[in-house]
Predict the structure.
Amino acid sequence: MNQILIAEKLYITPEMRKKKRMYKIDFFISVFLVCILFSYYIYAEYDKNKNEQVSQEILQSIQFEENLADDTTIKFSNASQVVILNTDDPFEVIVSEPVEDEDVTGELIERNKSVTENGTEYYTEAIVDIPSIDVHYPILKETSGTIDHIDELLKISPCYFWGPSPNEVGNYCIVGHNYRSAKFFSKVINLNDGDIIQITDLKGNMLEYEVYDKFVVAPDDLSCTTQLTNGMKEVTLITCTNDSSQRVIVKAREIN
């Protein structure tokens, strides 16, 4: 009987106790890491949803050229003077003074300007609609005209990347994130030839473009941004593949 008890005591050695402690430590570390990863996932989803909401708020607040006449006074300008008329009595002149030509484009930019939390100034220059994949977003552009902070803006909405002004002759290139969800340009990879892309500029003009090509390129291949369009108006959508290793390019041409 004593021999049996001694054998049972000897079975759990110090080395076994050490391994048991290590297993417990590994278990708690694994649980801790899972909690961190889960928290990060929750935060990332919250951040994406918050940015989606910001994008839609921008969309609702866009000012078009036709809205410039909604003020209590209307301005008419030429090269030498501006006359401000009373909207209640169009024959009464309130002010007449020499000024420079009024820059409608500049005023539109000012009315559609915003600033990120990090201080980057940008404005909304157009709207992109793709009915077949339920895409409806503002297109953002840095006021500096560069793409120095495009990564910051891409968190909010699709952005201007290269090319002319919206709906002008040339290749208007737009870049957007693929979140492998329904947000931003995630579904652009599902577009096919014949699908329609609609671009509405700040003048309120909407043009339709028909998809005619889709392909994948390396991240540093910018040949898709060429402006050699033979005098036509084109749109290029740029986003990532689902594994983010390459870029999906969708080309569309104005429907005449």
Observations:
- The chain has two domains: 30-66+103-254, 67-102.
- The mean pLDDT is 79.
- DSSP finds four helices and twelve strands in the chain.
